[in-house]
Design goal:
It contains 5 helices and 6 strands, in the order E-E-E-E-E-H-H-E-H-H-H. By secondary structure, it is of the alpha+beta class. The longest helix has 16 residues, at 78-93.
C-alpha cells in the first residue's frame, strides 16, 4: 500500500475493523518512511458472469430494479427492495467465490422474494424460470401452499 503523503511503497497496519455492513474492512495504517497515518477501506470485489460471457461488477441496484418490475402494484417499498438486494448479496458472498454466474443470482433472489411477497415471487419466477404453461404456475402455487405456514395475521 503506497503512502498517500510520501508515496513510500509500504505501510504498516496499526488497526483493523469490520465496517458496519460487514462487507468491508477499515484499516488504519502508518508509513514507516514519513510516520504519517492514513486509513484504507478494503472490500472484496464480486463479479457477475453474464450469459454472453461478459463479466461486470455485482450491483445491488440491478437486483432491486429487476425485482421491482415483478413488484409493480404490490405493497413493496423501495426500502424492502434494498433489503432484498442486500440479502441476495450476502447469500452470494457466503459462497466464497469472487465470480458468480447471473443465473445463480436469480436463484439466490427467489427465496428472499418469496418471503417478501408471494405474488411478486410468482411473477419473477414465471419469467426467470421460463414458465411455459398454466401447469408451471400451478406447480409453483402448490409449492407455495405446501410451505411451512407463517404466523397468522391479525384481523
Amino acid at each position: 500500500m503506497y503512502c498517500p503523503f510520501c508515496r513510500h511503497p509500504d505501510s504498516r497496519v496499526i488497526d483493523s475493523r469490520t465496517s458496519d455492513d460487514g462487507v468491508s474492512i477499515r484499516r488504519r495504517r502508518q508509513c514507516p518512511e514519513c510516520s504519517r497515518r492514513f486509513s484504507t477501506l478494503e472490500t472484496a470485489s464480486l463479479s457477475v458472469i453474464k450469459r454472453s460471457g461478459v463479466t461486470e461488477p455485482f450491483s445491488r441496484e440491478k437486483i432491486a430494479s429487476g425485482v421491482k418490475k415483478a413488484c409493480q402494484g404490490r405493497p413493496v417499498t423501495d426500502q424492502d427492495l434494498a433489503q432484498l438486494a442486500q440479502r441476495v448479496e450476502e447469500i452470494i458472498r457466503q459462497t466464497g467465490t469472487s465470480q458468480v454466474e447471473a443465473n445463480e443470482i436469480g436463484l439466490a433472489t427467489l427465496e428472499p422474494l418469496r418471503e417478501l411477497d408471494e405474488v411478486a415471487y410468482l411473477r419473477f419466477a414465471s419469467v426467470y424460470q421460463a414458465f411455459e404453461d398454466l401447469e408451471d404456475f400451478e406447480d409453483a402455487i402448490v409449492s407455495l401452499r405446501n410451505r411451512e405456514p407463517s404466523a397468522p395475521e391479525d384481523g
